[in-house]
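Standup notes
- DV: blocked on the single-chain target, sequence here:
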Amino acid sequence: MTLYPLRPLADLCERVTDGTHQPPKFTSSGIPFLFVSNIVNGQISFATTKFIAPDTHCELNRRCPVEVGDVIVSTVGSYGNAAVVHDDRPFSFQRHIAHIKLKTNLLDAVYLVHALHSAFVRAQIDKSVRGVAQKTLNLSELKKLQIPAPAINEQRRIADVLDRAETLRAKRRAALAELDGLAQSIFIEMFGDPVINMKNWPLQALGSLGTLDRGISKHRPRNAPELLGGPYPLVQTGDIANCDGYVRNYHSTYSEIGLRQSRLWPSGTLCITIAANIAKSGILLMDACFPDSVVGFVTENRATVEFVRCWLSFVQKRLEESAPESAQKNINLFTLRNLTLPVPPIDLQEMFARRVAAVEKLKAVQRASLAELDALFASLQDRAFRGAL
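- DV (later): unblocked, structure below
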């Protein structure tokens, strides 16, 4: 419970709408077009390969112009992630993102983002979403959310305290990101640029290094909810796209019925996405199932799996850009099996794997420290929205 008065979000906003419902014509450069994945850790990421022409942007933006101080919120898939528009850089976005214009005398934008991420409001969001395989927060439900609404000056005080605590978490995440890039640096040091292959390592087809097979899901979970809710991890393309090279997190599980129409892949399998997110990869850290939009690469030598994973991180963008585009981009199993890559001797691959393992130990220390900061932040956030800060 909270000591602050509760008000529906709709009462605190001028307008709550969403992005375009029609896929625009994309261009090679221009105005960034953002997706749910571009809202990360309370910030807007402009890392995207999708752009639209300025006149298309003007047309899309006319309905409800995006301005500094507005808030955007993801509403499909990874729903409930929010961020403030902090600068006047132009962008457009898909319909899976909600756009909130605030009554600035009643609601502070930074405070709202923290409130939407709080356990108190998040519990409301989780109860409001609809769907099975892809959960959706409808705009009508978003508007109904009960937001703790103290006086505007108190909101700003709370936002400032939480922002300062969030800065500590951001520094820890930045340290992890630097370590993430270290594996690529080690790869180049040992093997050279894998695209140019200046060290003239022999070329082999990826399919010759191990077995590559698509995941199995004979029935779509959205049409058969009895497939879900059991003990078997179900890894989706988004889980792989958002991992740090190792798949340890997942958002769905299969029941016994679900497992019978799928396949359980062993820990150590390299997962490679072939639809929507093209050639994103991660090594399973547990036995898991995945759908046919993911390919599993299995080989006897774990060092080769590590080598292939890092090699893919260099060529992923090129594979994505060259993928044929219909309703969504995809590549097929034949294409993956016939990709050629430079293959150094196995003893060097094993040395590389050992060095990467040492980096992973450093990352584990940073992740543990971040987990402690996350727990402290959650406690602080809980007190803030109960009125006990």
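- Follow-up: The first strand starts at residue 6 and ends at 8.
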